[in-house]
Amino acid sequence: MELQDNLALSGYLKFPNEIPEYLKKCKYLPKLNNERPDQRNLIYKERFSSLQNLVLIMTPLYTEDWIGLEALDDAGKVKYIAVERGHQEISIDDMKKYVVPYLTAQAPGSEKDDDHVGVGAHRAARKSNIKKIYNANQTP
After folding, report:
1. Could you tell me the CA-to-CA distances from 58 to 61, 70, 130, 134 in Å, in that order?
2. 84 CB contacts (<8 Å, ≥6 apart)?
3. In terms of Cα–Cα distance, which of 103, 101, 58, 62 is closest to 82?
């Protein structure tokens, strides 16, 4: 069973060294990710920000708040999960452990705490660290 049999990864075909070509040729993903600066859709951001919970493995969309990730995080609705593999190599066991509970009645509003995902830092410090990591990985 492949990861893509269970989840649709929004940045699946986005290569960091080919962003201009990606934006030019790919129609679906840049629109879904609200990545085109001249075509940002505020309704996407508003709807995304209204989610009850969001579980992310890793994404750069947060730092520029293209789709409302920062607003969700500020509201305490973003869950950060660290796994050993990259986001395209997440195991089925990790998906069952960390993602499936949020797709069932087990997670929304529950007191699962962040201990099971290795996150316990204050939100502002976590946010600052995410932005530092993101900025450190950007090419000049």
Report:
1. 9, 14, 10, 10
2. none
3. 58
Q: Are strands 54-56 and 78-80 parallel, antiparallel or unpaired?
A: parallel
29 pLDDT tier (thresholds 50, 70, 90):
confident
Residue 97 has pLDDT above 50, yes or no: yes
Which residues lie closer than 8 Å to 64 by C-beta, 6 or more apart? none
Contact criterion met (CB below 8 Å) for 83 and 60: no
- HSE on the CB side for 83, CA within 13 Å? 21
Domain range for 97? 3-136
Which residue in 87, 117, 83 sits closest to 3, CA to CA?
Answer: 87
Which of 47, 31, 51 has its CA nearest to residue 39? 31
Split into its structural domains, the chain has a count of 1
